[in-house]
């Protein structure tokens, strides 16, 4: 089973990487960009075939390693292969 | 209009960051992890309200700045606000 995880900064947390992209887009001549936020995208391939168990495992991975839950949110999508 | 962009490494391109996560998950006792790939996730808020134009603008941003199309793929999702 494949899990797709999006880790994003919580609202209100400063995002210098996003700001840098915003500035660079402006320099390249793109107008109308109101804000940019950058996060991480992680794909995990699991041997587990049970959806519930896979979801629980991924959730724990996010809490323990993949996301810093003090400043980041995460969203999980599961795909049967 | 809000665009959500996923930038992922093409198949066959080495992903040391993904490998590091895979190793760390193993050390934490998570078994059954077959592979991990890490990419970027970018949210762009646009003033543009026309869907077609917004899509074209985002596509150009990806080609010019956000993704390195030699080694990376990107996927765009557009959201009406």
TrEMBL record, chains A, B:
Q: Name one GO molecular function term.
A: ATP binding
Query: Which pathway does it operate in?
Result: Purine metabolism; IMP biosynthesis via de novo pathway; 5-amino-1-(5-phospho-D-ribosyl)imidazole from N(2)-formyl-N(1)-(5-phospho-D-ribosyl)glycinamide: step 1/2
Report the locations given in the UniProt record. Cytoplasm
Q: Identify the enzyme class.
A: ligase
A Gene Ontology annotation in the biological process aspect, one of them, is: 'de novo' IMP biosynthetic process
Q: Which Gene3D superfamilies does this chain map to?
A: Phosphoribosylformylglycinamidine synthase subunit PurS
**What's its catalytic activity?**
N(2)-formyl-N(1)-(5-phospho-beta-D-ribosyl)glycinamide + L-glutamine + ATP + H2O = 2-formamido-N(1)-(5-O-phospho-beta-D-ribosyl)acetamidine + L-glutamate + ADP + phosphate + H(+)
Q: Is ATP-binding found in the keyword set? A: yes
Question: Which keywords, in A-to-Z order, does the entry hold?
Answer: ATP-binding, Cytoplasm, Ligase, Nucleotide-binding, Purine biosynthesis
- What GO terms fall under cellular component here? cytoplasm
Task: Give the Enzyme Commission number.
Answer: 6.3.5.3
Identify the InterPro entries for this entry: PurS, PurS-like_sf
Question: What's this chain's function?
Answer: Part of the phosphoribosylformylglycinamidine synthase complex involved in the purines biosynthetic pathway. Catalyzes the ATP-dependent conversion of formylglycinamide ribonucleotide (FGAR) and glutamine to yield formylglycinamidine ribonucleotide (FGAM) and glutamate. The FGAM synthase complex is composed of three subunits. PurQ produces an ammonia molecule by converting glutamine to glutamate. PurL transfers the ammonia molecule to FGAR to form FGAM in an ATP-dependent manner.
| Family under the similarity heading | Belongs to the PurS family.
- Oligomeric state and partners? Part of the FGAM synthase complex composed of 1 PurL, 1 PurQ and 2 PurS subunits.
The name this protein carries in UniProt is: Phosphoribosylformylglycinamidine synthase subunit PurS
